[in-house]
Structures are given as C-alpha cells and as structure tokens.
Write a structure and sequence with these properties.
This protein is an all-alpha fold. Helix content is 79%, strand content 0%. Helix 3 packs antiparallel against helix 4, helix 13 runs antiparallel to helix 14 and helix 15 packs across helix 16. The longest helix is centred in the first third of the chain and has 18 residues.
Length: 279
C-alpha cells in the first residue's frame, strides 16, 4: 500500500492527486487501507491551506486505524504536518517523535525517516537528521536511502542560515553525493550542486563555485529545464572572481527567468550585474 500511495502523489497537481485518492476510497477496501488513504487526502488539504478539512479527515482516519498500524503512523505524521504548516510547531514535534518511534517499532523505515525529517524541521535539526540518516544508511530499500539527500540538504540550509558555512558545506556535499547515487530526478542533483556552490562563495571560494555552477547551467541548457537561480548564482560567482562579462551574461539570463517580485533585493543586484558593458 505504501508504494501505491507514493505513486498516486503529484505535488505539482494537488487536484488530480486528491481525485485519485477519492477514487480509491470509492473502491471496496479494508478499513486499514481506507485510514491510510484518508491521511493522504488530509495532506492534500494541508498543502491547500485548508487545515480544518485536513484535521477532520485525520479524525476519520484515526477512527479506522489500529493502534499499532501504518495508518496510525500516518495519522501522527500528517497531524504533525498540519500543525507545523499552521504555525503550531511546538505541538507538532511530539507527533513526529511518536510517529518515528511507532514506525521504527513496526519496521516501517520509510515512514520512520520521513518522521525524522519532519522533526528536524521543527527542533534539534542535527540530532533528528542524524537519526534519520543513520536509519536510511542501514536500509537496503533504495527509496529509504533516497532520504539521505533531503535530510542533509535541510541540515545544510539550517547551518547556512545561521552563518555556519563550514558545517553547511559539509552537509551540502553529503547531500550532493547522496543525490548523485540515489536521485532519479537530475534537476534535484543540480539543485544540490547549486547549494554547494552558494556555500563555497560564502566561504570565499568563488572560483570553485564557478566550475560547479557552469556544470549546473550547462545541464539546464542540454535538458531544456531552465533555472533562473542557477544563472543568478553563476553571475555572482563570476563577479566574485571579476569575470564581469560572463557575470553580466548570466545576470541577464537570470532576469529573463525570475519573477521580479519574488526576491526584489536579489533581482536588483542582478540588474546591476547585467548593466556591465565591456570597455
């Protein structure tokens, strides 16, 4: 059932995802399976911002789920997600911790690591990341091992935001290595490369960042998947090593892809770089 639920998700199309889950509920299924499907519908509602609807669906799921079941793990996990999304992080943490313990007791590695990943987002990022990564590394399941990249990526941004760039670089390098080994989506691999490059620049090592971002930007060209932030980072890296013409070119490419309202300060900086004219 877990694999089936994952395959039904399309985070870019919540409407179609919700329809698939509702169609599954219309079929003759056991109460245990119905409970799990209801938790996924609750997650859809949470992502839409309808927290009341999400909590009601979880109440329905909890009434059907056994106390030591996968459905119960999912109720804890999704209730925690709803609370976190609505700003109640302190209330969410015990639910993620309980989901981690119950999933571990059941031997459900995927949900246990998911719970550790969510707990790391709200409290003790290093400790919960360590727990999740240790479990993922022991697993023979490639889907569980694929959690290493996201876990280390989140830890890296936690360190980066705190100005702990050396520790951020270590985490991002682990994330990149993991994603190169386990990630099916090449864009996610290049996003991990971007995080390493951005941190190298913060550490005063922009020449190394240039080489990484040239690789990422080349991927966007050959894959036909443009990414304005990749061009922005390469522009900044080139400016840091005084390659002004390349910086201006990359800044202009970034400006053509980014929403000026999304990050106005960064867009204004790109406009400055794009204004460079040789001579």
């Amino acid at each position: 059932m877990a694999d089936e639920l994952r395959e039904m998700w399309d985070f870019a199309d919540l409407t179609a995802t919700g329809e698939r889950f509702r169609a599954r509920l219309a079929e003759p299924i056991t109460d245990a399976l119905r409970a799990e499907v209801l938790t996924q519908l609750a997650r859809v509602e949470g992502l839409r911002g309808d927290f009341a609807a999400g909590h009601q669906l979880l109440a329905d799921a909890e009434a059907l789920a056994g106390p030591d079941s996968s459905g119960r793990v999912r109720v804890l996990l999704e209730r925690g997600r709803l609370l976190r999304s609505s700003g109640a992080e302190p209330e969410a943490l015990p639910l993620f911790a309980a989901a981690f313990v119950l999933a571990g007791h059941r031997g459900d590695e995927y949900l246990a690591v998911d719970a550790a990943h969510m707990a790391a987002l709200v409290d003790s990022a290093e400790e919960w990341t360590r727990r999740g990564v240790e479990l993922a590394r022991r697993s023979a399941d490639p889907l569980v091992r694929a959690w290493i990249g996201p876990l280390m990526n989140n830890l890296g941004w936690e360190h980066h935001g705190a100005g702990r760039f050396t520790e951020a670089l270590t985490a991002f390098q682990h994330a990149l290595n993991a994603r190169e080994q386990t990630e099916d989506d090449p864009h996610e691999v290049e996003v991990a490369r971007y995080a390493v490059a951005r941190t190298l620049r913060a550490l005063g090592r922009p020449a190394e960042a240039v080489e990484l971002m040239r690789r990422a930007v080349e991927w966007t060209r050959t894959s036909g998947v443009p990414d304005g932030w990749f061009h922005e980072e390469l522009a900044e890296d080139c400016a840091a090593v005084e390659r002004w013409a390349e910086a201006a070119e990359q800044a202009r490419l970034a400006l053509g892809l980014l929403d000026a309202n999304q990050a106005p300060e960064r867009v204004n900086r790109l406009r400055e770089l794009a204004a460079f004219r040789p001579g």
